[in-house]
Design goal:
Chain A has 15 helices and no strands. By secondary structure, chain A is mostly helical. In chain A, helix 5 packs antiparallel against helix 14. The chains are: A mainly alpha, B mainly alpha.
Chain lengths: 291, 295
């Protein structure tokens, strides 16, 4: 279509020939819409970045402009006042333990289920996958956590997150089916133990799937605010998003510091997104498509 | 391997079954049981059966909060589902083209899905702030009124609907994009030969062939908007004056947050919410699948 337009007009307007792309009539309109869309998403981010580096005075009078003077100190101020070093350590710990725990426990379950090594493996599969549809039982969870003495403890929060097995088991069981079962037999003949086989042969072969599931779990834990509000009232063991919310709740009027705290919390996620975007998109939307 | 492994496959399965059962599956089902008790959430306090008392109080007692929550949920869910999917399909169509920079714009639109409720909510808290937020200044410039979008009961619901759509548009868009990329190019070539322009191709070819993606996206948006409360919690916590208290927010506030919490009663609200979502999903699923079959 672009060619047709260009050919029709080319002899009359030779100057156009130097322009590499020729727009058909509707196309420039498309670029305008695309630009507006990009601005709709970029402006809030850029505005928060600006506010994060503004003085309170500039924020009150002229917030929507380049910071002048640039208040770099907002970031360390928010960091120390909000005790973000503690939140960071907590979140990194939670994320690592929960992600590794989820992947190991889910793989150990997904392998026998997908291979039919246990009686009623279809039933177990449905049991786990039903978790994709069931609503979260926050109130009974609250009861269970109190009864087991896990309320307001690190280990309780970790177990609560690892229990979200539906998505990991669902994805990993699907990928296990892609591993040829001849490999199992060969390993059995060589005298390889069952658990060792899962760890040393199956898990390395599942690396791409484990990577995607791990990314999704990492993002969900990093962004969790509601569960810490319910299950982790103690400030010292809160993870970062709940910490950001706490900081906002205690400093609602100091928007330059809140913006700085947003930048602190969002930066690692944005970096992660930059490098792993394809896998994140595949993991987040793929689960929905297959479900 | 399976036949010779004896008890090992079962031992491998055990941790997952225990943790999933105890912390996820049983609690999910047990909400029904807790809705029949006077559970206070305080440890070492006896829990008593109260039968249908919570349901009686919720449905026949002072109903103003439930009625309000149902109204808010209806407006929130219908607006979010329709607008989010309508915009997402158009955006996906635009970004499924050969435009330069389309990959970059896709990333921009998807970014909030990764950033999560706290960051998205607070970004818009800053955007909406009454002192110097760009939205406030824009409304001030256009209408000449000093607005406090999130602070006023008249506008807060529209503000949270906007943020919810802004935050989740990228997710719906990606599902539509995946669906569009599964449509064979020959169909469009055939359309072109028949003289279809871009809009006709979109309306008569893309939309009908996208029916499975539409089903998934609509169902996910309906379930999501009827149950979600994370973003609402960060932005308004259901206020001001309950103007943004959806059913999900109502359950959370009654169970855990604020004064006079009553988890037993909140369980009853959660059951009503579950029943509503279930009915809506069954009806929609029937309608959407039939629509897929016709096309």
């Amino acid at each position: 279509m672009i060619q047709g337009d260009a050919l029709g007009r080319a002899p009359a307007r030779p100057a156009l020939r130097t322009v590499p792309i020729r727009l058909r009539p509707g196309m420039s309109g498309g670029y305008v819409v695309m630009l507006l869309l990009a601005l709709l998403y970029a402006i809030p981010m850029v505005f928060v970045l600006f506010v994060a580096l503004e003085s309170p005075r500039q924020f009150a009078t002229n917030a929507a402009s380049i910071p002048d003077p640039v208040m770099w100190s907002n970031v360390p101020n928010a960091w120390t006042r909000g005790e973000f070093s503690s939140y960071f350590v907590n979140t990194v710990t939670y994320t690592l333990v929960i992600t590794i725990g989820t992947l190991v426990i889910a793989t150990l379950a997904a392998f026998p289920i997908a291979r039919g090594h246990v009686r009623g493996s279809n039933g177990f599969y449905l049991l786990f996958v039903s978790g994709l549809l069931l609503p979260a039982g926050l109130i009974p969870q609250f009861f269970v956590m109190h009864q087991l003495g896990l309320f307001d403890t690190r280990i309780g929060y970790i177990l609560l997150w690892i229990s979200r097995m539906a998505f990991p088991v669902f994805v990993l069981a699907g990928f296990v089916k892609g591993i040829p079962s001849e490999l199992d037999d060969a390993a059995a003949i060589d005298g390889c133990g069952y658990v060792r086989y899962v760890f040393q042969v199956v898990m390395p072969l599942l690396k791409p799937a484990l990577g995607v599931v791990g990314l999704i779990v990492t993002i969900r834990v990093w962004n969790d605010v509601v569960n810490p509000v319910i299950f982790l009232p103690s400030r010292a063991i809160k993870p970062i998003s709940a910490g950001l919310f706490q900081f906002y709740a205690e400093n609602t009027a100091e928007l330059t510091l809140i913006a700085a705290a947003i930048v602190i919390t969002a930066s690692p996620l944005i970096l992660l997104f930059l490098f792993t975007q394809r896998y994140i998109v595949a993991g987040l939307t793929g689960g929905a498509l297959k479900g | 391997m399976g036949r010779t492994a004896g008890v090992w496959p079962y031992l491998c399965l055990l941790p997952a079954v225990l943790i999933f059962g105890l912390f996820e599956l049983v609690p999910s089902l047990a909400t029904a049981i807790f809705s029949l008790t006077d559970y206070t959430g305080l440890p070492h306090t006896p829990i008593n059966w109260v039968g249908l008392q919570n349901y009686h109080d919720l449905l026949l007692g002072s109903r103003s909060l439930l009625t309000r929550a149902l109204q808010v949920t209806a407006i929130f869910s219908v607006s979010v589902t329709l607008l989010q999917n309508g915009l997402a399909v158009l955006v996906a169509w635009l970004l499924n083209s050969s435009y330069y920079g389309r990959i970059l714009v896709r990333s921009f639109v998807f970014l909030p899905v990764v950033l999560g409720a706290t960051i998205n909510g607070l970004v818009w808290y800053v955007m909406f702030n009454p002192l110097s937020g760009p939205v406030t200044l824009m409304i001030n410039g256009l209408l000449g009124v000093r607005s406090n979008m999130l602070g006023s009961p008249a506008t807060a619901l529209y503000a949270v609907i906007w943020v919810q759509i802004w935050a989740n548009l990228g997710f719906s868009m990606m599902i539509f994009l995946a669906g569009m990329q599964g449509i064979p190019a020959e169909i469009y070539e055939a359309g072109k030969i028949d003289g279809a322009n871009a809009w006709q191709a979109f309306r008569r070819l893309t939309i009908p062939l996208l029916a499975p993606s539409i089903t998934i996206n609509v169902l996910l948006a309906v379930i999501g908007s009827m149950t979600t409360f994370e973003l609402l919690f960060v932005l308004t916590d259901g206020g001001p004056a309950f103007s943004t208290q959806t059913l999900g927010m109502f359950v959370f506030n009654q169970a855990f947050y604020g004064a006079g919490t009553n988890p037993g009663f909140a369980s009853a609200i959660a059951m009503v919410q579950f029943a509503l979502v279930f009915i809506v999903v069954i009806i929609l699923q029937y309608y959407l699948r039939r629509r897929e079959a016709v096309l």
